[in-house]
Amino acid sequence: MKKLIAPSILSADFTCLEKEIKAVEAAGADYIHIDIMDGHFVPNITVGTQIVAAARRCTKLPLDVHLMIENPDCYIDDFITAGSSVLTVHPEVCYHLQRTLKLIKDKGARPAVALNPATPLCTLEHILPDVEMILIMTVNPGFGGQKFIPAMLQKLRQLKEMLDSAGVTVPIEVDGGIVVDNIADVSRAGGDIFVSGSGIFKTADYAQTIAEMKKRIAS
């Protein structure tokens, strides 16, 4: 499976967001990752549909939109209309997870599920046919710039084994503390799509950073 880089605009300079998005696109980004936080499900408030729509006008790259919000079903239409390519939800806030995933797909986006560090893999057991991506959080969500939790490498390995045993081929996305120095370990553990915020946007040369990341995951 192709390995992809998804810069998270949570760490971008919002005073020149279009410039930042175009810069990482030119630097070799494969997705643009957008974190939506509501101050309830996670202890932070970020952006909404207007930023997704603005990002859609800035780039043709897929928009990987991560809903860290309560009652996500109420907002699926709005986020897909705004331009989301992938829409990721958390099982803790979906009363009927399979129905939510089907709704996302029926509305024209790719459905994905995110698991927080303490959320067990068994949560996925009965919805694997309904997901087109699985996101493993390697920090507790809410804030950018956190340190990668090393124990999540084993969780990635176990997820990879689970998918192989079930004969399911979907990309595993990893988000939280991804930097040049640990991306190879995360790749070897099973990661396919690597979300990095400060690991890219807080570096001096986006192109050099993304190129080095791709070099390390290729090796």
Summary keywords:
globular, 219 residues, alpha/beta, 8 helices, TIM Barrel
Sum this structure up briefly.
Helix content is 35%, strand content 18%. The chain has helices at 17-26, 49-58, 76-82, 97-106, 152-166, 183-189, 198-201, 206-218, and strands spanning 4-7, 32-37, 63-68, 86-89, 110-115, 133-137, 172-175, 193-196. Strands 1-8-7-6-5-4-3-2 form an eight-stranded parallel beta sheet.
Descriptive report:
By secondary structure, the chain is α/β, with parallel strands linked by helices. Helix content is 35%, strand content 18%. It contains eight helices and eight strands, in the order E-H-E-H-E-H-E-H-E-E-H-E-H-E-H-H. It has helices at 17-26, 49-58, 76-82, 97-106, 152-166, 183-189, 198-201, 206-218; strands at 4-7, 32-37, 63-68, 86-89, 110-115, 133-137, 172-175, 193-196. It has an eight-stranded parallel beta sheet. Helix 6 (183-189) runs parallel beside helix 8. The chain is globular, with a radius of gyration of 16 Å. The model has no long low-confidence stretch (mean pLDDT 96).
CATH homologous superfamily classification: Aldolase class I
The CATH architecture classification is Alpha-Beta Barrel
Give the class from helix and strand content and strand pairing: alpha/beta
Distance between the termini: 14 Å
Question: What is the number of strand segments?
Answer: 8
Low-confidence spans: none
Topology order in helix (H) and strand (E) letters: EHEHEHEHEEHEHEHH
Largest sheet: 8 strands, parallel
Please give the CATH class. Alpha Beta
